[in-house]
Write a structure and sequence with these properties.
With 202 residues, the chain is of the alpha/beta class. The protein has a single domain, classed as Rossmann fold. The strands form two sheets. A seven-stranded mixed beta sheet has the order 5-4-3-6-7-9-8, with helices on both faces. It has a two-stranded antiparallel sheet with strand order 1-2. Strand 4, helix 3 and strand 5 form a beta-alpha-beta unit. The longest helix is centred in the N-terminal third of the chain and has 15 residues. The chain is globular. The termini are far apart. Bound molecules: S-adenosylmethionine.
């Protein structure tokens, strides 16, 4: 299926959509207000990359890197890149967290990672979209991300208050030379209490 935002037509399948189509406008708004335009951006746990491609379409970044552990999502990203002639601006990796991504530096990292540390019986979506067992994905991300961030770089992740509170992530962030700049309430009109963590490199 195709979802179009401005001049970019994104390939996706509904089963791969983890909510990015709903929350990308709020990412754009927060980035415009609090961070501004950057040279390089990365979408962590990108899925089919509604958030990343919308940044590119809005010219909020010049270069975009995407990665996901799900091969089908990465294939969609690659199709979007090819069919929109974005080969000089965007690249997509099949990667477990940051492990298979070649060394590079970003100014901004965005992401909508799995939100629950254990399986939720009421959620219809697959485990890979929802579950971060014992927060191992978040821990691996925060451990490795400093190496990929430029000085003064920013991280903006959306989290779900039904699965976590900001405190869950504080130690992982602090331990790795990063700091929580702000926790921002999400305005999405949903029963879930989504919130954004804005994290900066010290
Ligand atoms: C909540 S969904 C978000 C997908 C997309 N960013 C969106 O907003 O629609 C979480 C994504 O994390 C990916 N994921 C899960 N475990 C991962 C891991 N270890 N490394 C990279 N991506 C992972 C899933 O495949 C899924 O695409």
């Amino acid at each position: 299926m195709i979802y179009q935002y401005k001049n970019i037509k994104m390939h996706y399948e509904p089963c791969l959509d983890g909510g990015g189509r709903e929350c990308y406008p709020e990412f754009l708004q927060i980035i415009q207000e609090k961070i501004g335009k950057v040279n390089s951006a990365f979408e962590f746990c990108a899925g089919t990359a509604f958030i990343g491609f919308s940044l590119l379409a809005d010219e909020m970044c010049e270069k975009l890197t995407l990665a996901d552990i799900e091969k089908e999502s990465v294939e969609c990203c690659k199709k979007t890149i090819k069919e929109n002639n974005l080969e000089n601006k965007a690249s997509a990796y099949h990667s477990d967290c940051l492990k298979q991504i070649p060394a590079q530096k970003w100014d901004l990292v965005v992401g909508n990672p799995p939100h629950f540390s254990e399986r939720q019986t009421n959620l219809p979506q697959t485990i890979v979209i929802n579950v971060d067992k014992n927060w191992e994905i978040h821990r691996s991300f925060y451990t490795d991300i400093s190496e990929y961030l430029n000085p003064n770089g920013s991280i903006l992740l959306v989290e779900n208050g039904r699965g976590s509170s900001p405190k869950v992530f504080y130690d992982m962030i602090k331990k790795n030379g990063l700091r929580v700049a702000e926790v921002i309430k999400c305005n999405l009109n949903r029963p879930s209490k989504f919130y954004f963590m804005l994290v900066k490199k010290n």
